Amino acid sequence: MARPPRLLLLLLAGVAAAANLCETTCLSMAGAYSYSDCTADTPSTTEPCCTSAAYSGTYSLCLARCAAKQRLATWKTFQSTCGLALCSSNSSYDDVYAYALDHYVEVADVDLTTEVYEAVEFGESSFNANFAYYKAKAGNALSNKIYGAAIAGYWLVIIGLAILMRLYRAIFDRSIHPRGAISRAIQTYVALPAFFGHSHAEPVRIFGFPVGLQPLRWQAFVVLGYVVANLLLVVAEFDVSYAAADVQSVFIQTLSFYSKRTGVMAVAMMVPMFVFSGRNTYLMLLTGWSNDTFKLFHRWIARVLVVDAIVHSIMETMYLVQLHSYKAYVTESVFRIIGITTTGVACIIAVQSAYYFRRRFFEGFLSTHILLALFFLVALGFHVMSTVYLRLIYACAGIYACDRLLRIGRVLYGNLSGHADMRANRDATQIRVRPAIAFRYRAGQYAYVYTLRLNFWQANPFSIAECRERGREYVFVAKKFDRVTARLHDAARTTTNSGNVMASATGTRVWIEGPYGATYPLERYASVLLVAGGVGITAVMSYAMQLKRAERICMVHVHWVVREKENVRWVDAQLAQLAMAENFDIHIHVTAARKDDGEREPITIKFGEKDPGITTYEFAEYNGNDDDDGADLNDEYADMTASLVTRFTAAKNVTFHYGRPVLRRLVRYTSELEGGSMAVFACGPGSMTDGVREAIVQELWRSPERRIDYFEDSFS
Fold this sequence. Notes:
Elements: H1 3-30, E1 34-35, H2 53-63, H3 68-82, H4 93-102, E2 104-106, E3 115-116, E4 119-121, H5 124-172, H6 181-191, E5 204-206, E6 209-212, H7 217-234, H8 250-268, H9 270-277, H10 281-287, H11 291-322, H12 326-332, H13 334-352, H14 355-360, H15 362-383, H16 390-415, E7 419-424, E8 428-434, E9 446-451, H17 452-455, E10 460-468, E11 473-479, H18 483-492, E12 504-508, E13 510-516, E14 527-533, H19 537-549, E15 555-562, H20 572-578, E16 584-590, E17 592-594, E18 600-602, H21 631-650, E19 654-658, H22 663-674, E20 678-683, H23 686-702, E21 708-712
Parallel strand pairs: 1-3, 2-4, 14-15, 14-20, 15-16, 16-19, 20-21
Antiparallel strand pairs: 5-6, 7-8, 7-12, 8-11, 9-10, 9-13, 10-11, 17-18
Helix pairs in contact: 1-2, 1-3, 1-5, 2-4, 5-7, 5-8, 7-11, 8-11, 9-11, 9-16, 11-13, 12-13, 13-15, 15-16, 22-23
């Protein structure tokens, strides 16, 4: 690091430690011996032996080498600590020192293994070496606190910048106008692209095995800055006293320093890690970051924390081995046993949080993760109990408790008498929740749904497709995907006494927690392109309904990619309303069809393949559903779906297509068709949102003068 900051740091260290540095040195030197008149079981290098006249004499002889002001202040502290103990500690310093000068032994004549009957006189070189050692130790302790605060402050600065940028956009960017050269370059090369290539929401695979999601370029820069800052602060210049080599070698001092520095850095990261772990609805609103961004930062903070904890444990072990006291320290010190346990739990959490386990076993991962994290927090609290860093553990516990209490309060406030009606389609469940109290809702938000009859202790996030009756009713669509949504789907399929399967369940006790998430000002743009994949239509539909009700009318293009045409049942009521709006252009892309024998036939015709414009293909005749699963339900849905398709096809602004759209052509065509500013919102599988993002980046390269802003809600 630069010399001036280091000099300032040493100056601060000298001011802070001047009052007790002499005391620390003399306590350590005098406490190294066993005194015959000391009633303490074992000597202590941190607490005085108040009952020993020999100890008091040794202590006074050591203080004689300190400055007069420090010497008298330290002796006063010694007297107040010992009180009216039956020894010379309640005498004046001059009296005790004068007596010790007549009754002392040289340090060279004393054996640490035998009892001492008189005061011990330390040589000047021995005192200077110990003083230099504790001075360096005090300076390093202060620098550890400063650098620990710096690594936590890094995230405070990042959050502050995000809030300022969002405030700037809210005040000065209310009217959508073309971007300047710098703003356009940031959007094209930093804000939108993935770090490498175009895969962001789709997992990166190594030999076909998913290993994680790639951050956006701006997110990667933030994480990279954090990792580099942590590395620089860990290896930053520190004070090793060569004058103290007689006390501890330079190598042992270095091991001790790195052990302390990495330990402090790991504890300092706890607060930002817990801040990013909660649902933090207010921080999300202030920064405009998505829940995915919060969790990305949470994971990277935790990963660096684990690395620092491992280095801390390794350096501490090497330090104790060099002192030839590893076994004694570890087996007899609960402090170090808990420290080893804490590091082990941190490593388990890191492995358990791998992308594969999160994605494949989410329910088990979440429950186990919370239990391990709480155990880690408590164990770390015991490990740092005797230090000032215990306050950080209290802060983390407070953050977690407040987050949980606020969530419980939000759930109980509006759901004590709430209930829901559920309707099961072939592969999805429509949930209409009516909470007891209306919530404030904005388009694009989501909520956590608790189904009390299934698992009241765990909630799953679902996008809100529509808010009705001024917040009195929320509509969700849950695609049958994993165990939770499958159980939800089965719960909606109730069985009557006659054995018939019903497609709906009324009055089900369902609680919601939310709404969460930020909303995007799509209504400010001249045109809007909404792209949905599968059940991603729920988030898209919330914006579509808002744009339909907006005072400012803009042209809205909706493209929904679904596997089968009966999926229109998911949002049939909303589609019926949008089909009547003149400023809406709706396209439904069906990626599979039926042969006469009922088997699936993939359609390979792509959007725009024959013509640069919109190409409509005739919809195949509906032949029912041949799947065995839910056959009774599908018979009921067949006629309804066929009539819906007929009704939507009859509308001039609703078009059905076979095959997947070519996203690059779709974005380019819509941009050229409308002109002016355009907002693009996408929600769907990772491969689709990555494709839309890449298409927009390419369009910005091709037409840099255009104002195209991209917003995303990916459920990958």
